[in-house]
Amino acid sequence: MKKQTIITALLALIAHCAFAVAPDSLKKDLEDYDYLVSFVEKNYAPFGAIMQKGYKGEYKSMKKQIRAQLRKGETNLEKAAIDYALWFYSQFDRHIGVMTEAFGMAQAKIYNEAFLKMDSTLATLTPDDVEYAPKPVSCKVDSLTWLIRVPSCSLDSHEWTKNALQQFDESDCENLIIDVRMNEGGSDAAWNKYYDILYDHPDKPYISWFRNTSENRNQNNWKTYAKGFIATCEASKKKFLKNFEWTGDTGRKPIMRIRRAAILVDILTVSAGESIVDFAKKHSNRAKVYGRSNTLGSNLTGNVGEGFLPNSKIKFYYATTVDSGFYEKDFSEGLGIAPDVIIPLPLPRKLTDNIDEWVLWVAEDLKR
Question: Cα–Cα distance between 167 and 185 in angstroms, integer?
Answer without folding.
Answer: 23
